[in-house]
Automatic annotation (TrEMBL):
EC category name: transferase
EC number: 2.7.1.-
One record GO biological process: glycolytic process
Keywords, in A-Z order: ATP-binding, Glycolysis, Kinase, Membrane, Nucleotide-binding, Transferase, Transmembrane, Transmembrane helix
Record bears the keyword Transmembrane: yes
Membrane spanning stretches: 6-25
Single GO molecular function: ATP binding
Domain Hexokinase N-terminal: 42-230
Full protein name: Phosphotransferase
Catalysed reaction equations from the record: D-fructose + ATP = D-fructose 6-phosphate + ADP + H(+); a D-hexose + ATP = a D-hexose 6-phosphate + ADP + H(+)
Pathway: Carbohydrate metabolism; hexose metabolism; Carbohydrate degradation; glycolysis; D-glyceraldehyde 3-phosphate and glycerone phosphate from D-glucose: step 1/4
Length: 238
């Protein structure tokens, strides 16, 4: 603790010293008449580095054209495009209990949240992070991976306290973030194009990852429906 305090103190002191030094240098240059030259030089540098608004508009228009082309046909654009079936955004009126599962690396996270609409917004939320063993990430099978995930999710659901309320007759809903290249088939289905981030389970490639998770949750005795699949995977489709 002592070392931490000393370290923070040293950093703060260094920042103060640097600030004072800059102020002194600025005052000295003003007194010598050099500060005006520095300001002019900086302004000239800023103007030369600025991108003209017309050029920025050209770039934006070109990207828009490429995005439309990519959505119109597979391989029709220089940009890597994958269709998303999300057709609207949250309004803030949402109420009830919802679950989320985020798989995107050596760990995955599960979360539950109680939404209270615009008045109460997020009433309560809880998160749990689970490490995935190396032997499950690579060289295993689809069943091994998704059974591991479903078991951890079932254990998390089992700890649901009285602060979370599921309306009678309503099934628990899950949002599934799968951060790997996926070709979505609907709002709640998509086939894996390829693995990244150290994962290597061949029998999952080309399969519907939501379907695999649903089968694993059924084997775990977990009554949860995947309501939406979200694939966030930048720089991974080559």
């Amino acid at each position: 603790m002592g070392k931490l305090v000393v370290g923070v103190s040293v950093v703060c002191t260094a920042a103060v010293v640097c600030g004072v030094a800059v102020l002194l240098m600025k005052r000295r240059m003003k007194n010598s008449g050099e500060w005006g030259k520095v300001e002019a030089l900086l302004k000239d540098f800023e103007e030369k580095c600025a991108t003209p608004v017309g050029k920025l508009k050209q770039v934006a228009d070109a990207m828009t054209v490429e995005m439309h082309a990519g959505l119109a046909s597979e391989g029709g654009s220089k940009l890597k495009m994958l269709i998303s079936y999300v057709d609207n955004l949250p309004t803030g009126d949402e109420e009830g209990l919802f679950y989320a599962l985020d798989l995107g690396g050596t760990n995955f996270r599960v979360m539950r949240v109680q939404l209270g609409g615009k008045e109460k917004r997020i009433v309560k939320h809880e998160v749990k992070e689970v490490s995935i063993p190396q032997n499950v990430m690579a060289g295993s099978s689809s069943e091994v991976l998704f059974d591991f995930i479903a078991t951890a999710l079932a254990e998390f659901v089992a700890t649901e306290g009285d602060d979370f309320h599921l309306p009678p007759g309503r099934q628990r809903e899950l949002g599934f973030t799968f951060s790997f290249p996926v070709k979505q088939l609907s709002i709640a289905s998509g086939t894996l194009i390829k693995w990244t981030k150290g994962f290597s389970i061949e029998d999952v490639v080309g399969q519907d990852v939501v379907g695999e998770l649903a089968k694993a949750m059924e084997r775990a005795g977990l009554d949860v429906r995947v309501a939406a699949l979200v694939s966030f995977s930048p720089n991974q489709i080559q």
